C-alpha cells in the first residue's frame, strides 16, 4: 500500500509540464492556444515567486515575478488578437492579482515595491481585456 501511494505521488509531478516546457510550446501553438499557455506560465511563475517570498528570498523572486507580468501581458495580447479566451484570461489575471495583493500584505516595505508594480501592470492587463470584451457603443 505504501509503495502504491509513493508511486502515485512520484508520478504526479511528471504529468505537469514545467515552465520551460510551456515556454517551448508557445512558438508552435496557434494564437488562441498561446494565450492559454502564457496564462499557465504566469500562474506557475506566481507560485514560484510566492514560495521564494515566503522563504525570505526576495531577490530570487524577482525573475518569476517579472515572468508573471510579461506572460500575463502576452496572454492579453494573444487573446485580444484572436478574439478568444478573453474572459478566461481576465479571470486568471484577476486571480493572480488577488494572490499578489495577499502576498503584498505579508512583505516588508522594501520588498513591496516590485509587487506593487506587478499589481499595477496586471490591473492594466485586466482593464485592456475588459475594454476589448465590452466595447462602448457596440449595442
Provide keyphrases for this structure:
mainly alpha; 139 residues; single chain; disordered N terminus
Could you explain how this protein is built, in words?
There is one protein chain. This protein is mainly alpha-helical and 139 residues long. The protein has one domain (19-133). It contains 6 helices and no strands. Helix 2 (19-26) packs antiparallel against helix 3, helix 3 (31-54) runs parallel beside helix 5 (86-104) and helix 4 packs parallel to helix 6. The longest helix has 25 residues, at 109-133. The N and C termini lie far apart (61 Å). Mean pLDDT is 89; it is low at 1-8.
Summarize the SSE layout with pairings:
Elements: H1 2-15, H2 19-26, H3 31-54, H4 62-82, H5 86-104, H6 109-133
Helix pairs in contact: 2-3, 3-4, 3-5, 4-5, 4-6, 5-6
Strand content: under 5%
Indicate the percent of residues in helices: over 70%
Structural class: mainly alpha
Distance between the amino and carboxyl termini: 61 Å
| Domains, number | 1
**Major sheet:** none
Shape: flat
Order of helices and strands: HHHHHH
Low-confidence stretches: 1-8
- Tally of extended strands? 0
Look at the structure and give the mean pLDDT: 89
Number of helices: 6
How much is the radius of gyration in Å? Answer: 17 Å
